[in-house]
Amino acid sequence: MSIGIQAGIGPIKNWSLAGEESYPQHEKINGENVLKYRTKRHGCMYCPIACGGTVQVKDGPFKVEEARLPEYETIQAFAPFVMCDDIEACFKAQELCDKAGVDTISCGHVVAFAVECFENGILTLEDTGGLELRWGEPKGIIELTRQICEREGFGGEVLADGVKRAVERIGRGSEKYGVHIGGQEPAFHDFRYEAPSRGVTYISDPTPARHERCSGGQLLQLKMPLGPYPEFQPFDVPEGDMDALGRLYARGSKYYSAFSSCGFCAYTLGASSHLDVISIIQGFAGWDDFTAQDFLDAGERTHTLRQMFSLREGLTFDKIQFPPRLVEKPIFEGALAGKRNTVDFYEIRRHYFAGYGFDPDSGKPSKERMEELGIGQFYV
User: Fold this and answer.
1) Whole-structure pTM over 0.85, yes or no?
2) Which of 64, 132, 230, 239 is most exposed, with minimal Cβ within 10 Å?
Protein backbone atom coordinates (compact mmCIF):
# COMPACT_ATOMS: atom_id res chain seq x y z
CA MET A 1 0.00 0.00 0.00
CA SER A 2 2.69 2.50 1.00
CA ILE A 3 4.75 1.92 -2.15
CA GLY A 4 1.71 2.53 -4.35
CA ILE A 5 0.81 5.71 -2.51
CA GLN A 6 4.38 7.02 -2.55
CA ALA A 7 4.82 6.27 -6.26
CA GLY A 8 1.49 7.83 -7.15
CA ILE A 9 -0.24 4.82 -8.69
CA GLY A 10 -2.70 4.45 -5.80
CA PRO A 11 -5.62 6.87 -6.40
CA ILE A 12 -6.67 9.06 -3.47
CA LYS A 13 -9.91 10.92 -2.73
CA ASN A 14 -11.97 9.59 -5.62
CA TRP A 15 -9.11 9.86 -8.17
CA SER A 16 -8.55 13.57 -7.46
CA LEU A 17 -5.24 13.25 -5.59
CA ALA A 18 -2.07 11.18 -5.76
CA GLY A 19 1.21 10.88 -3.86
CA GLU A 20 2.14 10.58 -0.19
CA GLU A 21 1.79 14.29 0.53
CA SER A 22 -1.91 13.87 -0.20
CA TYR A 23 -2.17 10.89 2.14
CA PRO A 24 0.75 10.98 4.62
CA GLN A 25 -0.93 8.48 6.94
CA HIS A 26 -0.35 5.63 4.49
CA GLU A 27 1.80 3.67 6.97
CA LYS A 28 -1.33 3.09 9.10
CA ILE A 29 -2.79 0.86 6.39
CA ASN A 30 0.40 -0.92 5.37
CA GLY A 31 0.93 -4.68 5.49
CA GLU A 32 2.48 -4.80 8.95
CA ASN A 33 -0.53 -3.08 10.49
CA VAL A 34 -2.98 -5.30 8.63
CA LEU A 35 -1.28 -8.56 9.62
CA LYS A 36 -1.51 -7.71 13.31
CA TYR A 37 -5.17 -8.67 13.06
CA ARG A 38 -4.70 -11.90 11.14
CA THR A 39 -5.93 -14.99 12.96
CA LYS A 40 -5.67 -17.62 10.19
CA ARG A 41 -3.95 -18.11 6.86
CA HIS A 42 -5.43 -19.80 3.81
CA GLY A 43 -4.81 -20.02 0.11
CA CYS A 44 -5.63 -21.87 -3.05
CA MET A 45 -5.18 -25.65 -2.97
CA TYR A 46 -1.52 -26.69 -2.61
CA CYS A 47 -0.28 -23.09 -2.80
CA PRO A 48 2.85 -22.65 -0.65
CA ILE A 49 2.29 -18.90 -0.27
CA ALA A 50 -1.26 -18.83 1.19
CA CYS A 51 -1.75 -15.10 0.77
CA GLY A 52 -5.35 -15.22 2.02
CA GLY A 53 -6.53 -15.25 5.59
CA THR A 54 -9.03 -14.09 8.16
CA VAL A 55 -8.91 -11.17 10.58
CA GLN A 56 -10.60 -10.35 13.86
CA VAL A 57 -11.33 -7.06 15.61
CA LYS A 58 -12.15 -7.84 19.23
CA ASP A 59 -13.80 -4.59 20.26
CA GLY A 60 -14.57 -1.04 19.20
CA PRO A 61 -17.07 0.41 16.71
CA PHE A 62 -15.92 -1.90 13.93
CA LYS A 63 -15.82 -5.18 15.81
CA VAL A 64 -15.74 -8.27 13.59
CA GLU A 65 -15.61 -11.88 14.73
CA GLU A 66 -14.15 -13.20 11.52
CA ALA A 67 -13.66 -11.31 8.27
CA ARG A 68 -11.67 -12.09 5.18
CA LEU A 69 -8.20 -10.61 5.15
CA PRO A 70 -8.67 -7.62 2.82
CA GLU A 71 -6.44 -7.36 -0.21
CA TYR A 72 -5.08 -4.27 -1.92
CA GLU A 73 -8.29 -3.24 -3.68
CA THR A 74 -10.45 -3.28 -0.54
CA ILE A 75 -7.95 -1.34 1.56
CA GLN A 76 -7.46 1.18 -1.22
CA ALA A 77 -11.24 1.54 -1.56
CA PHE A 78 -12.00 2.20 2.09
CA ALA A 79 -8.83 4.00 3.14
CA PRO A 80 -7.05 6.46 0.78
CA PHE A 81 -9.91 6.53 -1.71
CA VAL A 82 -12.22 7.95 0.98
CA MET A 83 -9.40 9.64 2.96
CA CYS A 84 -9.80 7.26 5.92
CA ASP A 85 -6.88 5.81 7.89
CA ASP A 86 -8.77 3.40 10.16
CA ILE A 87 -7.75 -0.12 9.12
CA GLU A 88 -10.45 -1.64 11.34
CA ALA A 89 -13.06 0.18 9.26
CA CYS A 90 -11.61 -1.56 6.19
CA PHE A 91 -12.09 -4.93 7.89
CA LYS A 92 -15.72 -4.02 8.66
CA ALA A 93 -16.33 -2.94 5.07
CA GLN A 94 -14.85 -6.23 3.85
CA GLU A 95 -17.15 -8.20 6.15
CA LEU A 96 -20.27 -6.29 5.09
CA CYS A 97 -19.52 -6.60 1.39
CA ASP A 98 -18.57 -10.28 1.55
CA LYS A 99 -21.73 -11.26 3.39
CA ALA A 100 -23.84 -9.43 0.82
CA GLY A 101 -21.86 -10.56 -2.23
CA VAL A 102 -20.93 -6.98 -3.07
CA ASP A 103 -17.75 -6.03 -4.91
CA THR A 104 -15.51 -3.80 -2.79
CA ILE A 105 -14.09 -1.93 -5.80
CA SER A 106 -17.54 -0.85 -6.95
CA CYS A 107 -18.73 -0.17 -3.40
CA GLY A 108 -15.71 1.99 -2.60
CA HIS A 109 -16.32 4.03 -5.74
CA VAL A 110 -19.97 4.69 -5.07
CA VAL A 111 -19.27 5.61 -1.44
CA ALA A 112 -16.54 8.08 -2.48
CA PHE A 113 -18.87 9.48 -5.13
CA ALA A 114 -21.58 10.09 -2.53
CA VAL A 115 -19.13 11.72 -0.11
CA GLU A 116 -17.87 14.11 -2.79
CA CYS A 117 -21.43 14.96 -3.81
CA PHE A 118 -22.28 15.69 -0.17
CA GLU A 119 -19.15 17.81 0.33
CA ASN A 120 -20.06 19.87 -2.74
CA GLY A 121 -23.71 20.42 -1.80
CA ILE A 122 -25.19 18.18 -4.48
CA LEU A 123 -26.48 15.88 -1.73
CA THR A 124 -27.97 17.19 1.51
CA LEU A 125 -28.91 15.70 4.86
CA GLU A 126 -32.46 15.54 3.55
CA ASP A 127 -31.28 13.40 0.62
CA THR A 128 -29.23 11.06 2.80
CA GLY A 129 -31.84 10.63 5.53
CA GLY A 130 -29.76 12.57 8.04
CA LEU A 131 -26.52 10.68 7.37
CA GLU A 132 -23.56 13.06 7.26
CA LEU A 133 -20.92 12.03 4.75
CA ARG A 134 -17.41 13.41 5.18
CA TRP A 135 -13.99 12.48 3.89
CA GLY A 136 -12.04 10.44 6.40
CA GLU A 137 -14.92 9.88 8.83
CA PRO A 138 -15.28 6.08 9.06
CA LYS A 139 -18.60 5.86 10.92
CA GLY A 140 -20.55 7.54 8.12
CA ILE A 141 -18.63 5.63 5.47
CA ILE A 142 -19.33 2.26 7.09
CA GLU A 143 -22.99 3.09 7.74
CA LEU A 144 -23.40 4.01 4.08
CA THR A 145 -21.68 0.75 3.11
CA ARG A 146 -24.10 -1.16 5.34
CA GLN A 147 -27.07 0.54 3.68
CA ILE A 148 -25.74 -0.35 0.23
CA CYS A 149 -25.17 -3.98 1.20
CA GLU A 150 -28.57 -4.37 2.86
CA ARG A 151 -30.45 -2.16 0.37
CA GLU A 152 -31.71 0.13 3.07
CA GLY A 153 -32.21 3.89 3.21
CA PHE A 154 -30.39 6.31 0.93
CA GLY A 155 -27.55 3.90 0.20
CA GLY A 156 -29.88 1.09 -0.79
CA GLU A 157 -32.27 3.19 -2.85
CA VAL A 158 -29.80 5.42 -4.69
CA LEU A 159 -26.32 3.87 -4.62
CA ALA A 160 -26.65 0.09 -4.52
CA ASP A 161 -26.64 -0.34 -8.30
CA GLY A 162 -23.29 1.36 -8.78
CA VAL A 163 -21.98 4.74 -9.88
CA LYS A 164 -23.62 4.89 -13.32
CA ARG A 165 -27.13 4.38 -11.95
CA ALA A 166 -26.42 6.66 -8.99
CA VAL A 167 -25.43 9.50 -11.32
CA GLU A 168 -28.63 8.99 -13.31
CA ARG A 169 -30.73 9.07 -10.14
CA ILE A 170 -29.07 12.07 -8.51
CA GLY A 171 -28.36 14.26 -11.54
CA ARG A 172 -27.65 17.91 -10.62
CA GLY A 173 -24.13 17.81 -12.08
CA SER A 174 -23.06 14.76 -10.10
CA GLU A 175 -21.56 13.20 -13.23
CA LYS A 176 -18.47 15.32 -12.59
CA TYR A 177 -17.65 13.10 -9.62
CA GLY A 178 -18.90 9.75 -10.91
CA VAL A 179 -16.16 7.37 -12.00
CA HIS A 180 -17.11 4.39 -14.15
CA ILE A 181 -16.09 3.04 -17.55
CA GLY A 182 -18.91 1.51 -19.53
CA GLY A 183 -20.90 1.17 -16.32
CA GLN A 184 -18.10 -0.59 -14.42
CA GLU A 185 -16.03 1.05 -11.69
CA PRO A 186 -12.28 0.67 -12.42
CA ALA A 187 -9.76 -0.97 -10.14
CA PHE A 188 -7.48 1.21 -8.04
CA HIS A 189 -4.45 1.41 -10.32
CA ASP A 190 -3.81 4.84 -11.77
CA PHE A 191 -3.03 4.26 -15.45
CA ARG A 192 -2.19 7.95 -15.79
CA TYR A 193 1.19 7.17 -14.21
CA GLU A 194 1.70 3.49 -14.98
CA ALA A 195 2.43 1.78 -18.29
CA PRO A 196 -0.41 2.86 -20.61
CA SER A 197 -1.49 -0.72 -21.29
CA ARG A 198 -3.69 -0.57 -18.22
CA GLY A 199 -5.57 2.47 -19.50
CA VAL A 200 -6.02 0.82 -22.88
CA THR A 201 -7.39 -2.30 -21.20
CA TYR A 202 -9.83 -0.25 -19.11
CA ILE A 203 -11.54 0.95 -22.31
CA SER A 204 -11.13 -2.11 -24.52
CA ASP A 205 -11.63 -5.30 -22.50
CA PRO A 206 -14.88 -7.24 -23.05
CA THR A 207 -15.52 -6.47 -19.39
CA PRO A 208 -14.39 -2.82 -19.22
CA ALA A 209 -12.33 -1.36 -16.35
CA ARG A 210 -10.68 -4.69 -15.46
CA HIS A 211 -7.12 -4.27 -14.28
CA GLU A 212 -5.51 -7.70 -14.53
CA ARG A 213 -6.14 -8.26 -18.24
CA CYS A 214 -3.40 -5.79 -19.18
CA SER A 215 -0.72 -7.61 -17.20
CA GLY A 216 0.97 -9.46 -20.05
CA GLY A 217 1.23 -6.40 -22.29
CA GLN A 218 2.51 -4.29 -19.42
CA LEU A 219 5.31 -6.74 -18.66
CA LEU A 220 6.28 -7.00 -22.33
CA GLN A 221 6.45 -3.21 -22.59
CA LEU A 222 8.79 -3.27 -19.59
CA LYS A 223 11.00 -5.70 -21.59
CA MET A 224 10.12 -8.65 -19.34
CA PRO A 225 9.68 -11.98 -21.19
CA LEU A 226 6.61 -14.05 -20.37
CA GLY A 227 8.33 -17.39 -20.84
CA PRO A 228 11.33 -19.16 -22.35
CA TYR A 229 9.89 -19.33 -25.89
CA PRO A 230 10.40 -16.82 -28.72
CA GLU A 231 6.63 -16.37 -29.03
CA PHE A 232 6.52 -15.08 -25.43
CA GLN A 233 9.31 -12.51 -25.75
CA PRO A 234 9.03 -8.72 -25.92
CA PHE A 235 10.04 -7.00 -29.13
CA ASP A 236 11.24 -3.51 -29.91
CA VAL A 237 8.55 -0.88 -30.44
CA PRO A 238 9.93 2.21 -32.20
CA GLU A 239 8.74 5.45 -30.64
CA GLY A 240 5.42 6.44 -32.16
CA ASP A 241 4.83 3.07 -33.83
CA MET A 242 1.27 2.46 -32.69
CA ASP A 243 0.88 -0.62 -34.86
CA ALA A 244 3.80 -2.36 -33.15
CA LEU A 245 2.55 -1.26 -29.73
CA GLY A 246 -0.89 -2.69 -30.47
CA ARG A 247 0.63 -6.02 -31.51
CA LEU A 248 2.75 -6.07 -28.33
CA TYR A 249 -0.28 -5.50 -26.13
CA ALA A 250 -2.25 -8.14 -28.06
CA ARG A 251 0.56 -10.68 -27.56
CA GLY A 252 0.58 -10.00 -23.82
CA SER A 253 -3.20 -10.19 -23.64
CA LYS A 254 -3.30 -13.55 -25.43
CA TYR A 255 -0.66 -14.90 -23.08
CA TYR A 256 -2.53 -13.73 -19.98
CA SER A 257 -5.83 -15.18 -21.19
CA ALA A 258 -4.25 -18.62 -21.64
CA PHE A 259 -2.18 -18.34 -18.46
CA SER A 260 -5.26 -17.48 -16.42
CA SER A 261 -7.35 -20.21 -18.07
CA CYS A 262 -4.80 -22.77 -16.89
CA GLY A 263 -5.47 -21.79 -13.30
CA PHE A 264 -2.06 -20.21 -12.77
CA CYS A 265 -2.02 -17.42 -10.20
CA ALA A 266 -1.95 -13.92 -11.66
CA TYR A 267 0.34 -12.84 -8.82
CA THR A 268 3.08 -15.05 -10.27
CA LEU A 269 2.84 -13.66 -13.79
CA GLY A 270 5.87 -11.45 -13.35
CA ALA A 271 7.96 -14.53 -12.60
CA SER A 272 6.52 -16.62 -15.41
CA SER A 273 9.62 -16.17 -17.57
CA HIS A 274 11.07 -19.00 -15.48
CA LEU A 275 7.94 -21.14 -15.87
CA ASP A 276 7.82 -23.55 -18.79
CA VAL A 277 4.04 -23.59 -19.19
CA ILE A 278 4.25 -25.55 -22.44
CA SER A 279 6.08 -28.50 -20.87
CA ILE A 280 3.63 -28.44 -17.96
CA ILE A 281 0.65 -28.61 -20.32
CA GLN A 282 2.28 -31.29 -22.46
CA GLY A 283 2.93 -33.45 -19.41
CA PHE A 284 -0.38 -32.83 -17.69
CA ALA A 285 -2.65 -33.22 -20.71
CA GLY A 286 -0.56 -35.63 -22.73
CA TRP A 287 -0.45 -33.22 -25.67
CA ASP A 288 3.09 -33.90 -26.85
CA ASP A 289 2.73 -31.69 -29.91
CA PHE A 290 1.33 -28.66 -28.01
CA THR A 291 3.38 -25.54 -28.87
CA ALA A 292 3.87 -21.99 -27.66
CA GLN A 293 1.82 -20.78 -30.63
CA ASP A 294 -0.97 -23.17 -29.63
CA PHE A 295 -0.87 -21.53 -26.20
CA LEU A 296 -1.25 -18.04 -27.67
CA ASP A 297 -4.02 -19.27 -29.98
CA ALA A 298 -5.86 -20.66 -26.95
CA GLY A 299 -5.59 -17.26 -25.27
CA GLU A 300 -6.77 -15.53 -28.44
CA ARG A 301 -9.69 -17.95 -28.71
CA THR A 302 -10.73 -17.22 -25.12
CA HIS A 303 -10.46 -13.47 -25.52
CA THR A 304 -12.26 -13.48 -28.89
CA LEU A 305 -15.18 -15.44 -27.45
CA ARG A 306 -15.45 -12.95 -24.58
CA GLN A 307 -15.33 -10.09 -27.08
CA MET A 308 -18.05 -11.58 -29.27
CA PHE A 309 -20.26 -12.28 -26.26
CA SER A 310 -20.08 -8.65 -25.10
CA LEU A 311 -20.76 -7.36 -28.60
CA ARG A 312 -23.74 -9.67 -28.95
CA GLU A 313 -25.10 -8.31 -25.67
CA GLY A 314 -24.90 -4.73 -26.94
CA LEU A 315 -21.55 -3.39 -25.75
CA THR A 316 -20.30 -0.76 -28.22
CA PHE A 317 -16.60 -0.18 -27.74
CA ASP A 318 -16.48 3.08 -29.69
CA LYS A 319 -18.71 4.54 -26.97
CA ILE A 320 -16.61 3.25 -24.06
CA GLN A 321 -14.73 6.27 -22.74
CA PHE A 322 -13.04 7.58 -19.63
CA PRO A 323 -15.22 9.72 -17.32
CA PRO A 324 -14.27 13.39 -16.82
CA ARG A 325 -12.42 12.72 -13.57
CA LEU A 326 -10.01 10.26 -15.21
CA VAL A 327 -9.15 12.73 -17.96
CA GLU A 328 -8.08 15.31 -15.38
CA LYS A 329 -4.59 15.45 -13.96
CA PRO A 330 -4.73 14.80 -10.21
CA ILE A 331 -3.05 17.12 -7.74
CA PHE A 332 0.16 15.22 -7.25
CA GLU A 333 3.52 15.31 -5.52
CA GLY A 334 5.61 12.18 -5.39
CA ALA A 335 8.04 9.83 -7.07
CA LEU A 336 6.27 9.97 -10.45
CA ALA A 337 5.51 13.69 -10.48
CA GLY A 338 5.84 14.99 -14.03
CA LYS A 339 5.74 11.49 -15.52
CA ARG A 340 2.08 11.49 -16.45
CA ASN A 341 1.14 9.52 -19.55
CA THR A 342 0.18 11.80 -22.42
CA VAL A 343 -0.58 9.06 -24.91
CA ASP A 344 -3.83 8.85 -26.86
CA PHE A 345 -5.43 5.82 -25.23
CA TYR A 346 -8.23 5.72 -27.80
CA GLU A 347 -5.75 5.61 -30.68
CA ILE A 348 -3.77 2.82 -29.00
CA ARG A 349 -7.04 0.95 -28.52
CA ARG A 350 -7.58 0.98 -32.29
CA HIS A 351 -4.17 -0.59 -32.86
CA TYR A 352 -4.65 -3.04 -29.99
CA PHE A 353 -7.88 -4.24 -31.63
CA ALA A 354 -6.02 -4.48 -34.94
CA GLY A 355 -3.36 -6.58 -33.19
CA TYR A 356 -6.13 -9.08 -32.53
CA GLY A 357 -7.50 -8.79 -36.06
CA PHE A 358 -10.58 -7.00 -34.71
CA ASP A 359 -12.19 -4.05 -36.42
CA PRO A 360 -10.21 -1.10 -35.01
CA ASP A 361 -13.29 1.02 -34.26
CA SER A 362 -16.01 -1.41 -33.23
CA GLY A 363 -13.71 -4.09 -31.82
CA LYS A 364 -15.59 -6.79 -33.72
CA PRO A 365 -13.57 -9.95 -34.50
CA SER A 366 -13.27 -11.11 -38.09
CA LYS A 367 -15.27 -14.13 -39.20
CA GLU A 368 -12.23 -15.54 -41.03
CA ARG A 369 -10.02 -15.52 -37.94
CA MET A 370 -12.76 -17.00 -35.76
CA GLU A 371 -13.09 -19.85 -38.24
CA GLU A 372 -9.32 -20.40 -38.14
CA LEU A 373 -9.54 -20.59 -34.35
CA GLY A 374 -12.36 -23.13 -34.58
CA ILE A 375 -15.05 -20.84 -33.17
CA GLY A 376 -16.63 -19.56 -36.39
CA GLN A 377 -20.06 -20.80 -35.28
CA PHE A 378 -20.16 -18.03 -32.67
CA TYR A 379 -19.74 -15.18 -35.12
CA VAL A 380 -22.78 -12.86 -35.10
Assistant:
1) yes
2) 239
